[in-house]
Amino acid sequence: MDVPEIQVVGLSNERCVDCHPGTPMLEPKVARDLAAALHPDWVLSDTSIERTFAFKSFNAAFGLATRVALLAEAQGHHPDLEVGWGRLHVKLTTHAIGGLSRNDMIMAAKIDSLAG
Fold it and tell me: Contact, 109 vs 93, CB < 8 A?
């Protein structure tokens, strides 16, 4: 059986695609390989990838949350965001399939780019 090459370079340049209940979830090894290309603060689980950003103020945390929200709307792939004083927690999962898709990794890479 041929194993497709995993493309991890340039995730942030990709665009999220529509997912539906029949969209396959990422295989665990593929998810790990893609996550390895992201900022090391991302935490991968079987069904999601999460990261908490720390800031010196609520305003800074809310600012990144706003930029992430605008990006999510443009990509059609929406993370769960939790904003608190000095922190933003981002959780990505593909609700339509109950697990991880390539879209989650693309959004994580794009969020890394936004956060700088």
Answer: no
Q: Tokens standing for 78?
A: 């929406």
Task: Find residue 94's DSSP bridge partners.
Answer: 99
Q: State residue 66 phi and psi, 5-degree precision.
A: -65, -45
Query: Which of these, 52, 49, 5, 9, lies nearest to 31 by C-alpha position?
Result: 49
- Rounded Cα distance between 77 and 32, Å, is 20
Instruction: Give the per-residue pLDDT at 15.
Output: 95
Q: What is the pLDDT of residue 20?
A: 87
pTM above 0.70, yes or no: yes
**What is the rounded CA–CA span in Å between residue 113 and residue 97?**
26
Question: How many residues are listed for the chain in this entry?
Answer: 116
